[in-house]
Amino acid sequence: MSTRVRIENLTKNFGNVSALDNFSLEVDPGEFMVLLGPSGCGKTTAVRCIAGLSDPSSGTIHIGDQLVNGLPPRDRDIAMVFQNYALYPHMSVYDNIAFPLKMRKESKGNIRKKVEKISKLLEISQLIDRKPKELSGGQMQRVALGRALVREPKVFLMDEPLSNLDAKMRAYMRTEIKKLQRKVGITTIYITHDQIEAMSMADRIAIMDHGLIQQVGTPQEVYSKPSNTFVAGFTGSPPMNFLECEVSRSNSHLLFEISGSFLVRSESGALRNVFDRLYGKGESPAKVTLGIRPRDIHIRNDQERSDLTIDCILSFVEMLGDDTVLEVNIGKNSMKVLTNSMMTDTRQDLSVGQHMSLGISHEKLHFFNAQTGVRRGESKQ
Ligand SMILES: Nc1ncnc2c1ncn2[C@@H]1O[C@H](COP(=O)(O)OP(=O)(O)O)[C@@H](O)[C@H]1O
Ligand SMILES: [Mg+2]
User: Fold this and answer.
1) Considering the chain, what is the average pLDDT of its residues?
2) Which domain holds residue 165?
3) Is pLDDT of 69 > 60?
4) Distance from residue 137's CA to the centre of ligand 1 (Å)
5) Which of 4, 10, 184, 216 has the most CB atoms around its CB within 10 Å?
6) Nearest to 87 by CA among 120, 46, 124
């Protein structure tokens, strides 16, 4: 039986710092919810309030049907895993995992059964007699997970549990944690500042900035329909390009004027339709922030037609193995383009300083309000 977590209008102030500002979030039973946001945006404060380690200034927290405000942490039936594993150094792996059950005074036989089951699930049965100092970082983190899981809590809170691991172990453990959560089905709130972790693990992501939730949605939703420029810039790598432009209509085409000097002309009917749908036929010209993901830009060959064509100058080439990132200048603006290295390798004419022509499909353009950064058109909130 999985449990729903409902957080309503949570506010937490530290002096005049507002760490949480009317934070509301509902986590479905068995869901893997990721809180994603930059350092200092209030993620840890949110989970500390849920765990009962910190009292909110106002707002309510329900775990299942129970209002838990004021309830001490031990009565909330929550398990937490932190960045530093906090294992007891003098205890074996077995005793570390068994500890919460011993505290609950469960019978020896029962404890043995549960510890063995969890160790098997986490594939650490062979390490059971070791001390923490004889384990690798990834193994220690698995023991910490085991100790949290063995209690069969209603809710799992994880605050950046993989930050101390090296890149390879982090990638491995994120798959392991995700699989484990699927298997046990415990409602989980997982904190990270790493968008790749969030994208790859979450059923849904809540993106935060300055104590405020900016958007809640599936990884696909927040990636393809970011509700504002903050969310758009925080997902995807390299991040989305933003171009401030003034868009106007002229007969059958659209004119995109960038930095007051540079003109991009589009005769695409499809793009014209998108623009008319978003802005209405009467409105013109419109100041917009145009968002384009580096991966959604392609290098045009001369004959090819594209909805939006941007002429630019190549300023930097960065090889990343499978991918190559090109930096280009458009007037005073710069933009990043992510290309497949195989494709760029075959183009011998790629050299810094050269003119290039880039193409973007109308489906891949994001329009944001130039003043507020809010997405124009539908977005999932
Ligand atoms: N105990 C505290 N006293 C004062 N300010 C705090 C305290 N805890 C957190 N803060 C402030 O609240 C904000 C959010 O912090 P935190 O929740 O730790 O962010 P995150 O986990 O997203 O990095 C930050 O500005 C931080 O400095
Ligand atoms: Mg934190």
Assistant:
1) 90
2) 5-234
3) yes
4) 26
5) 10
6) 124
